[in-house]
Amino acid sequence: MINNLNTDGQNSNILNKNAKYDRQLRLWGNHGQTKLENSRICLINASTAGTEALKSMVLPGVGYFSIIDDNTITKEDVSKNFFLPFESVGQNRAKVASENLCELNQDVIGDYLVENIDRILENKPEYLKSFNLVIATNLKENTYKHLAEYLWNENIPLISIRSFGLIGFLRIITQEHHVVEAHPDNQLPILRLDQPFEELKTFCNSVDLNDMSEAEYSHIPYLIILYKYLELWKSQNDGKIPKNYKEKEAFKHFIKSGNVFFLFF
Q: Lowest mean pLDDT: which of 27-41, 96-110, 187-201?
């Protein structure tokens, strides 16, 4: 196992994580990043397509990966796979690919197993149960069918990749999968202005916007301004709040025009 986690300076690594993963955190938030960091990925065969697929998971910080491959690196392998250097010819493909992939991200734990997938499926298929996703590349048809059937029954997604130079295909085999992510970090706050509680109404009504200087007015919480103009709007619209786009836009203009009134009159 190749473990990149360094206990020295661990606190500083935590502090730098937000900066390191800033772009993807904007996309899937802390919840999505946590899911990724807790994931375990298995790659079967460290082919060119397989290592490139795994690279795209190592860079954003997948928690753990393991490569299953009993093949020895050939000159053909090193001529087309960036993660297999020329001096690695004759070594195990899973071992070398794991070591070089781990160099991309010190937060990721990499592992490898020098074994044939057919023997694993025959003798110890439960080894695959510990993974959240399995990526298989360039498998024989019988092996592929056996693997797909086992993972389907265990409800583990399988991504099958086969490439021939510039031509290839990717197939996803998984049961029905739902993704619901409402980005809770970006939820709008509930201001309770449509049904204000008594304490809120008392506090807002105690503020007199007409008896303020410009400096005092600039420090008024916007919640109070919204409340007062919403009450005025309701008094002019049969007690109803703005509901559709047209009414909400009119309400915005109503507040802006009111700000000018309070500041200068």
A: 187-201
Q: Residue 85's Cα: distance from chain center in Å?
A: 31
137, 93 contact by CB (below 8 A): no
Residue 261 predicted with pLDDT over 50: no
